[in-house]
Amino acid sequence: MNEITGTEVKYLLARIHGDSGKEEVANYNEYNATFTYMTDIGRATHFDDLKKVQDLANLQSMLAQLMGSGHQFKVIKQEINRTVVEEQA
């Protein structure tokens, strides 16, 4: 979205840690094509394409199952709504 006002929708990939239940969001490192999971939502990779992030969540779930980590993955929808504040008389 390039407008100043309006609604912006982004998607995040989240992991629920198998042992602790701790929730973390994914940060994609383009240099080495890996994901790092962290609690800092401000550093998370924000995706525009819902289908892509759903496919990533499914892929990560398959890897977690193969490796027996017990991690679960989900897609988080983030909506930001920006409006003009009207001046009061």
Describe this structure in words.
- With 89 residues, this protein is α+β, with helices and mostly antiparallel strands.
- The protein is 20% helix and 38% strand.
- It contains one helix and four strands, in the order βββαβ.
- It has one helix at residues 50-67, and strands spanning 6-16, 23-29, 34-38, 72-82.
- A four-stranded antiparallel beta sheet has the order 3-2-1-4.
- It is elongated and about 60 Å long.
- The two termini are 32 Å apart.
Helix and strand layout, with pairings?
Blueprint lengths: L5 E11 L6 E7 L4 E5 L11 H18 L4 E11 L7
Antiparallel strand pairs: 1-2, 1-4, 2-3
Structural class: alpha+beta
- Which shape, going by the Cα principal axes? elongated
Q: What share of residues is helical?
A: 10-25%
Overall pLDDT level: 93
Cα(first) to Cα(last) distance is 32 Å
Q: Find the count of extended strands (DSSP E, 2+ residues).
A: 4
Low-pLDDT regions = none
Order of helices and strands: EEEHE
H/I helix tally: 1
- In angstroms, what is the radius of gyration? 16 Å
Report the sheet-strand fraction. 35-45%
Output the strand order for the largest sheet. 3-2-1-4
The biggest sheet, with number of strands, parallel, antiparallel or mixed sense and barrel status, is: 4 strands, antiparallel
